Write the C-alpha coordinates for this entry.
Amino acid sequence: MGSLSGKNAVVTGSTSGIGLAYARAFAGAGANVVINGFGSPEDIEKERSKIESDFKVKAVYSPADMTKPAEIAEMIALGEKSFGSVDILVNNAGIQFVSPIEEFPIEKWDQIIAINLSSAFHAIRAAVPGMKKKGWGRIINTASAHSLVASPFKSAYVSAKHGIAGLTKTVALEVATHKITCNCISPGYVWTPLVEKQIPDTMKARNLTREQVINDVLLDAQPTKEFVTSEQVAALALFLCGDDAAQITGTNLSIDGGWTAE
Ligand code: NAD
Protein backbone atom coordinates (compact mmCIF):
# COMPACT_ATOMS: atom_id res chain seq x y z
CA MET A 1 0.00 0.00 0.00
CA GLY A 2 1.37 3.36 -1.04
CA SER A 3 1.24 6.35 1.28
CA LEU A 4 -1.52 7.87 -0.87
CA SER A 5 -3.63 4.73 -1.34
CA GLY A 6 -7.30 5.66 -1.35
CA LYS A 7 -6.54 9.29 -2.20
CA ASN A 8 -7.45 11.04 -5.43
CA ALA A 9 -5.53 13.88 -7.03
CA VAL A 10 -6.15 16.47 -9.72
CA VAL A 11 -3.02 17.95 -11.31
CA THR A 12 -3.48 20.77 -13.80
CA GLY A 13 -1.01 21.07 -16.66
CA SER A 14 0.15 17.48 -16.23
CA THR A 15 0.63 16.44 -19.84
CA SER A 16 4.21 17.71 -19.66
CA GLY A 17 7.11 18.77 -17.46
CA ILE A 18 6.65 19.29 -13.73
CA GLY A 19 2.92 18.47 -13.80
CA LEU A 20 3.52 15.06 -15.33
CA ALA A 21 6.16 14.38 -12.67
CA TYR A 22 3.66 15.28 -9.91
CA ALA A 23 1.01 12.99 -11.43
CA ARG A 24 3.45 10.09 -11.71
CA ALA A 25 4.77 10.64 -8.16
CA PHE A 26 1.25 10.64 -6.68
CA ALA A 27 0.27 7.59 -8.73
CA GLY A 28 3.48 5.88 -7.60
CA ALA A 29 2.31 6.43 -4.02
CA GLY A 30 -1.06 4.83 -4.83
CA ALA A 31 -3.31 7.82 -5.67
CA ASN A 32 -5.74 7.91 -8.57
CA VAL A 33 -5.11 10.96 -10.73
CA VAL A 34 -6.91 13.33 -13.06
CA ILE A 35 -4.41 14.58 -15.59
CA ASN A 36 -5.00 17.77 -17.58
CA GLY A 37 -3.29 19.89 -20.19
CA PHE A 38 -2.78 20.25 -23.90
CA GLY A 39 -1.01 18.01 -26.39
CA SER A 40 -1.77 15.52 -29.14
CA PRO A 41 -4.53 13.03 -28.17
CA GLU A 42 -2.14 10.12 -28.88
CA ASP A 43 0.59 11.47 -26.59
CA ILE A 44 -1.90 12.23 -23.81
CA GLU A 45 -3.47 8.78 -24.04
CA LYS A 46 0.01 7.24 -23.96
CA GLU A 47 0.89 9.07 -20.72
CA ARG A 48 -2.53 8.34 -19.18
CA SER A 49 -2.43 4.60 -19.86
CA LYS A 50 1.24 4.41 -18.83
CA ILE A 51 0.32 5.85 -15.40
CA GLU A 52 -2.33 3.14 -15.03
CA SER A 53 -0.07 0.28 -16.12
CA ASP A 54 3.05 1.48 -14.26
CA PHE A 55 1.30 2.12 -10.95
CA LYS A 56 -1.96 0.09 -10.96
CA VAL A 57 -4.10 3.13 -10.20
CA LYS A 58 -6.83 4.87 -12.19
CA ALA A 59 -5.99 7.87 -14.35
CA VAL A 60 -8.53 9.99 -16.21
CA TYR A 61 -7.93 12.91 -18.53
CA SER A 62 -9.68 16.27 -18.30
CA PRO A 63 -9.28 18.51 -21.37
CA ALA A 64 -10.23 21.63 -19.34
CA ASP A 65 -8.75 24.85 -20.65
CA MET A 66 -7.39 26.80 -17.67
CA THR A 67 -8.59 30.08 -19.19
CA LYS A 68 -12.21 28.88 -18.85
CA PRO A 69 -13.75 28.89 -15.34
CA ALA A 70 -16.66 26.58 -16.29
CA GLU A 71 -14.26 23.96 -17.68
CA ILE A 72 -12.15 24.17 -14.50
CA ALA A 73 -15.25 23.44 -12.37
CA GLU A 74 -16.03 20.51 -14.70
CA MET A 75 -12.50 19.14 -14.16
CA ILE A 76 -13.02 19.04 -10.38
CA ALA A 77 -16.48 17.49 -10.90
CA LEU A 78 -14.91 14.83 -13.16
CA GLY A 79 -12.49 13.89 -10.36
CA GLU A 80 -15.31 13.70 -7.81
CA LYS A 81 -17.50 11.67 -10.17
CA SER A 82 -14.74 9.27 -11.27
CA PHE A 83 -13.15 8.60 -7.88
CA GLY A 84 -15.65 9.80 -5.24
CA SER A 85 -13.54 12.76 -4.06
CA VAL A 86 -10.72 15.14 -4.89
CA ASP A 87 -8.36 15.01 -1.92
CA ILE A 88 -5.28 16.56 -3.50
CA LEU A 89 -5.35 19.51 -5.89
CA VAL A 90 -2.22 20.74 -7.60
CA ASN A 91 -2.52 23.97 -9.54
CA ASN A 92 0.38 23.74 -11.91
CA ALA A 93 -0.61 24.74 -15.46
CA GLY A 94 1.42 27.71 -16.59
CA ILE A 95 2.85 29.51 -19.57
CA GLN A 96 5.57 32.09 -20.01
CA PHE A 97 6.04 35.07 -22.31
CA VAL A 98 9.18 37.20 -22.49
CA SER A 99 9.02 40.77 -23.77
CA PRO A 100 9.83 44.36 -22.75
CA ILE A 101 6.73 45.82 -21.09
CA GLU A 102 6.10 48.50 -23.72
CA GLU A 103 5.81 45.78 -26.39
CA PHE A 104 4.14 43.15 -24.17
CA PRO A 105 1.00 41.98 -26.05
CA ILE A 106 -2.14 42.79 -24.01
CA GLU A 107 -3.67 39.40 -24.84
CA LYS A 108 -0.54 37.64 -23.52
CA TRP A 109 -0.87 39.53 -20.22
CA ASP A 110 -4.53 38.45 -19.94
CA GLN A 111 -3.73 34.84 -20.87
CA ILE A 112 -0.89 34.51 -18.35
CA ILE A 113 -2.96 36.00 -15.52
CA ALA A 114 -5.81 33.61 -16.43
CA ILE A 115 -3.72 30.42 -16.70
CA ASN A 116 -1.03 31.07 -14.07
CA LEU A 117 -3.20 32.77 -11.43
CA SER A 118 -6.98 32.85 -11.90
CA SER A 119 -7.22 29.14 -12.76
CA ALA A 120 -5.93 28.30 -9.28
CA PHE A 121 -8.67 30.46 -7.73
CA HIS A 122 -11.35 28.69 -9.79
CA ALA A 123 -10.03 25.19 -9.05
CA ILE A 124 -9.60 25.80 -5.31
CA ARG A 125 -13.07 27.39 -5.14
CA ALA A 126 -14.56 24.24 -6.72
CA ALA A 127 -12.51 21.69 -4.73
CA VAL A 128 -12.68 23.08 -1.18
CA PRO A 129 -16.33 22.10 -0.44
CA GLY A 130 -15.52 18.40 -1.11
CA MET A 131 -12.33 18.57 0.97
CA LYS A 132 -14.19 20.20 3.88
CA LYS A 133 -16.84 17.49 3.70
CA LYS A 134 -14.16 14.80 3.93
CA GLY A 135 -12.21 16.67 6.59
CA TRP A 136 -8.91 16.27 4.73
CA GLY A 137 -7.20 17.97 1.84
CA ARG A 138 -3.95 19.09 0.29
CA ILE A 139 -3.72 22.07 -2.05
CA ILE A 140 -0.38 22.71 -3.69
CA ASN A 141 0.27 25.56 -6.10
CA THR A 142 3.31 25.63 -8.34
CA ALA A 143 4.59 29.15 -7.86
CA SER A 144 8.18 29.99 -8.86
CA ALA A 145 11.30 31.79 -7.69
CA HIS A 146 9.47 34.56 -9.54
CA SER A 147 6.90 34.60 -6.71
CA LEU A 148 9.67 36.05 -4.54
CA VAL A 149 11.94 37.99 -6.91
CA ALA A 150 11.59 39.49 -10.38
CA SER A 151 13.48 39.25 -13.66
CA PRO A 152 13.15 41.85 -16.40
CA PHE A 153 10.86 41.16 -19.40
CA LYS A 154 8.55 38.79 -17.47
CA SER A 155 6.00 41.29 -16.15
CA ALA A 156 2.91 39.09 -16.46
CA TYR A 157 4.57 35.92 -15.17
CA VAL A 158 6.15 37.62 -12.15
CA SER A 159 2.85 39.35 -11.31
CA ALA A 160 0.88 36.09 -11.58
CA LYS A 161 3.39 34.17 -9.45
CA HIS A 162 3.47 36.85 -6.73
CA GLY A 163 -0.35 36.59 -6.81
CA ILE A 164 -0.24 32.81 -6.36
CA ALA A 165 1.88 33.27 -3.24
CA GLY A 166 -0.79 35.59 -1.79
CA LEU A 167 -3.65 33.29 -2.78
CA THR A 168 -1.83 30.39 -1.09
CA LYS A 169 -1.58 32.21 2.24
CA THR A 170 -5.19 33.38 2.13
CA VAL A 171 -6.61 29.93 1.38
CA ALA A 172 -4.38 28.33 4.05
CA LEU A 173 -5.90 30.61 6.69
CA GLU A 174 -9.45 29.97 5.52
CA VAL A 175 -9.22 26.16 5.63
CA ALA A 176 -6.78 25.78 8.54
CA THR A 177 -9.21 24.12 10.95
CA HIS A 178 -10.46 21.58 8.38
CA LYS A 179 -7.26 19.49 8.13
CA ILE A 180 -6.67 21.01 4.71
CA THR A 181 -3.27 22.53 3.99
CA CYS A 182 -2.41 24.94 1.20
CA ASN A 183 1.18 25.62 0.20
CA CYS A 184 3.12 26.74 -2.82
CA ILE A 185 6.33 25.32 -4.22
CA SER A 186 8.72 27.76 -5.83
CA PRO A 187 11.18 26.11 -8.20
CA GLY A 188 14.10 27.84 -9.80
CA TYR A 189 14.86 26.79 -13.38
CA VAL A 190 13.66 23.29 -14.18
CA TRP A 191 14.59 21.93 -17.62
CA THR A 192 11.11 21.54 -19.21
CA PRO A 193 9.51 22.65 -22.51
CA LEU A 194 8.46 25.91 -20.75
CA VAL A 195 12.09 26.88 -20.20
CA GLU A 196 13.30 25.62 -23.56
CA LYS A 197 10.64 27.64 -25.42
CA GLN A 198 11.61 30.96 -23.83
CA ILE A 199 15.22 30.74 -24.98
CA PRO A 200 14.68 32.23 -28.48
CA ASP A 201 12.74 35.24 -27.10
CA THR A 202 15.30 35.81 -24.37
CA MET A 203 18.06 35.68 -27.04
CA LYS A 204 16.15 38.42 -28.88
CA ALA A 205 15.25 40.55 -25.83
CA ARG A 206 18.82 40.48 -24.48
CA ASN A 207 20.74 40.11 -27.77
CA LEU A 208 22.48 36.90 -26.67
CA THR A 209 23.32 33.47 -28.12
CA ARG A 210 21.55 30.29 -26.95
CA GLU A 211 24.57 29.23 -24.87
CA GLN A 212 24.77 32.69 -23.29
CA VAL A 213 21.08 32.52 -22.33
CA ILE A 214 21.53 29.08 -20.71
CA ASN A 215 24.74 29.88 -18.85
CA ASP A 216 24.63 33.65 -18.27
CA VAL A 217 20.88 34.19 -17.74
CA LEU A 218 19.28 30.94 -16.58
CA LEU A 219 22.00 29.14 -14.65
CA ASP A 220 23.52 32.46 -13.60
CA ALA A 221 20.50 32.87 -11.30
CA GLN A 222 21.23 29.56 -9.52
CA PRO A 223 24.28 29.40 -7.24
CA THR A 224 24.44 25.60 -7.67
CA LYS A 225 24.78 26.14 -11.47
CA GLU A 226 22.49 23.19 -12.03
CA PHE A 227 18.89 22.91 -13.19
CA VAL A 228 16.31 21.62 -10.70
CA THR A 229 14.67 18.38 -11.89
CA SER A 230 10.91 17.81 -12.21
CA GLU A 231 11.30 14.70 -10.04
CA GLN A 232 12.83 16.74 -7.20
CA VAL A 233 9.86 19.14 -7.31
CA ALA A 234 7.42 16.21 -7.33
CA ALA A 235 9.15 14.61 -4.32
CA LEU A 236 8.58 17.81 -2.34
CA ALA A 237 4.89 17.79 -3.31
CA LEU A 238 4.62 14.17 -2.21
CA PHE A 239 6.08 15.10 1.17
CA LEU A 240 3.48 17.88 1.51
CA CYS A 241 0.73 15.30 1.01
CA GLY A 242 1.89 13.16 3.94
CA ASP A 243 0.97 13.29 7.63
CA ASP A 244 4.41 14.64 8.51
CA ALA A 245 3.45 17.82 6.63
CA ALA A 246 0.08 18.30 8.37
CA GLN A 247 1.35 21.45 10.15
CA ILE A 248 3.01 22.94 7.08
CA THR A 249 0.49 25.38 5.65
CA GLY A 250 0.55 28.83 4.08
CA THR A 251 4.21 28.46 3.19
CA ASN A 252 6.17 29.18 0.04
CA LEU A 253 8.79 26.44 -0.31
CA SER A 254 11.80 27.29 -2.43
CA ILE A 255 13.58 24.61 -4.46
CA ASP A 256 15.85 26.83 -6.50
CA GLY A 257 19.53 25.92 -6.06
CA GLY A 258 19.97 28.93 -3.78
CA TRP A 259 18.60 31.54 -6.24
CA THR A 260 16.44 33.45 -3.76
CA ALA A 261 19.03 33.28 -0.97
CA GLU A 262 21.07 35.89 -2.83
P1 NAD B 1 5.44 22.81 -19.40
O1 NAD B 1 5.28 23.73 -20.56
O2 NAD B 1 6.27 21.59 -19.55
O3 NAD B 1 4.00 22.35 -18.88
C1 NAD B 1 2.92 23.24 -18.78
C2 NAD B 1 1.64 22.45 -18.72
O4 NAD B 1 0.54 23.37 -18.66
C3 NAD B 1 1.40 21.57 -19.94
O5 NAD B 1 0.79 20.36 -19.56
C4 NAD B 1 0.44 22.42 -20.78
O6 NAD B 1 -0.35 21.66 -21.69
C5 NAD B 1 -0.39 23.01 -19.67
N1 NAD B 1 -1.17 24.17 -20.09
C6 NAD B 1 -0.75 25.31 -20.70
N2 NAD B 1 -1.80 26.12 -20.95
C7 NAD B 1 -2.90 25.47 -20.49
C8 NAD B 1 -4.29 25.79 -20.47
N3 NAD B 1 -4.78 26.94 -20.99
N4 NAD B 1 -5.14 24.89 -19.93
C9 NAD B 1 -4.69 23.71 -19.43
N5 NAD B 1 -3.38 23.37 -19.43
C10 NAD B 1 -2.51 24.24 -19.96
O7 NAD B 1 5.97 23.72 -18.21
P2 NAD B 1 6.59 23.40 -16.78
O8 NAD B 1 7.93 23.99 -16.76
O9 NAD B 1 6.39 21.98 -16.39
O10 NAD B 1 5.66 24.34 -15.89
C11 NAD B 1 4.73 23.88 -14.95
C12 NAD B 1 4.55 24.95 -13.88
O11 NAD B 1 5.79 25.15 -13.21
C13 NAD B 1 4.12 26.31 -14.42
O12 NAD B 1 3.17 26.90 -13.54
C14 NAD B 1 5.42 27.10 -14.39
O13 NAD B 1 5.20 28.48 -14.27
C15 NAD B 1 6.07 26.53 -13.15
N6 NAD B 1 7.50 26.73 -13.06
C16 NAD B 1 8.34 26.21 -14.00
C17 NAD B 1 9.69 26.44 -13.88
C18 NAD B 1 10.67 25.92 -14.88
O14 NAD B 1 11.82 26.33 -14.82
N7 NAD B 1 10.29 25.05 -15.78
C19 NAD B 1 10.20 27.17 -12.79
C20 NAD B 1 9.31 27.67 -11.84
C21 NAD B 1 7.95 27.44 -11.97
